[in-house]
Amino acid sequence: MSYDKSSTRHQISGQFRFVTTKSSLLLAEVYEEAGLPLEAYKYLKEYQKLRKESDQKDEASYLADVEIRSTIEKEEQEKNRLKQEKLQQSQHILAIEKQREIDGLKAQAEKQLLESKAEQAELDKKLDKERLEAKALQNKRQQDYQISLLNLDIDTQRKVRTGLLGGLALFALFVAVLFRQNHVKQRFNALLSKQKVEIERQRDQLDHTLTELKSTQTQLIQKEKLASLGELTAGIAHEIQNPLNFVNNFSEVSTELVTELEEERHKPQRDTELETELLADLKANLRKINHHGGRASSIVKGMLEHSRVETGEKRPTDLNALADEYLKIAYHGLKAKDKSFACELVTEFDPALEPLETVPQEIGRVLLNLYNNAFYAVAQRASQTHHADYQPTVWVSTSQVAGKEVVRVRDNGTGIPESVKSKIFQPFFTTKPTGEGTGLGLSLSYDIVTKGHGGTLLVESHQGEGTEFRIELPTYKG
User: Fold this and answer.
1) What EC numbers are recorded for this enzyme (predicted)?
2) Alpha-carbon separation of residue 206 from 219, 220, 259, 477 (angstroms)
3) Which helix (H) or strand (E) holds 303?
4) Which CATH class is domain 314-478?
5) pLDDT tens across 316-332, in order?
6) Could you give the C-alpha distances from 279 to 112, 260, 285, 359, 387, in angstroms and in order?
């Protein structure tokens, strides 16, 4: 600490000498220009004197700094040596304890081996005894079996006689039953014909109901797509509005600069420096206008690229750009509907991620749905909690792991209960209030990722803490 203070004092003193020396030189130049050579000579001598003293003190300060650094380096070396000795002692003690533990395990193993041999001898005695008992039991069973065969032969002869008498009775009963079954069959055929007509009527009714259900499902899917389109439109409008605002602002400022420049040029005595400054500002504004105009143009170009008619054909897609673009669109779309909504966005994109074969419109729809769900969750938690330190946050990251490109969307919202987690990918299932969700968003997203791209859509959630959705897409082509 003393070394640091000493160094600081040297630094402050050096700065003061530098300022004093510089001031003497400036005063000498001022007096010389004013035509006062004696005063100029006085301050010039003062400057030379201070300059000489400064050089001597700088040399002494340098030597002191060298000595301080040498002392600190020696102390660090001594600390490292003591730390190394302490580490070696700890390792030696640990080795002794390990050897004691190994000796104890060897003694325990020898004891268990002796006990095992004694148990084996006792087990052999029991097995011999059981073999003798089993042999005696087998002899007794053979005797009982021979006796049972004799009794069975007697019973068989008795049953044959009884069977002949019973057969005659059964034949008579069979004839009676056959007559009755023929009558029942006729009644059953009539009933079957009636039921067949009813079944055909119900089948036609079910076909009609199924057609209506398919039509309703198609309408709901279209509604979900239109809802996504509305959110996209709001986000795109906000994205374009920002650069347009910059263009308008810089255009107004540039107009004022042009007016000021024209006024300056009509003056009898023109200020060329001011004109040059105004022209430089005007050029800077024009560059900014061009930059923000290009930004708006790139946004429109990107949206036109993603809004092309879906052909279902996959093409190389930059997942980093796609995830970032739809994140901004989703956020600004929600801000356009709810001005009070605020959320921190954290992105961590893998720069080494290679273009992946996907249908970008479909993956964009999946991302938009996951983003909207995350924003809804943090907004719900913000409205339910009264902690001032709660900051709604949504994290988005990309990575490449084991032949897959992974997109993670995580929030610190309300989380998903365990009883609900297994149902979230089912069609028409939603936890949102009536009118706020169709229940098709996650179902369609799951089908797009799994069936359309051969990937997986996973979810991890803890109620009250947050949720993470993970999109895993294979990197192979096909």
Assistant:
1) 2.7.13.3
2) 20, 21, 78, 42
3) helix 272-306
4) alpha beta
5) 999 999 999 999 988 98
6) 97, 10, 10, 48, 52
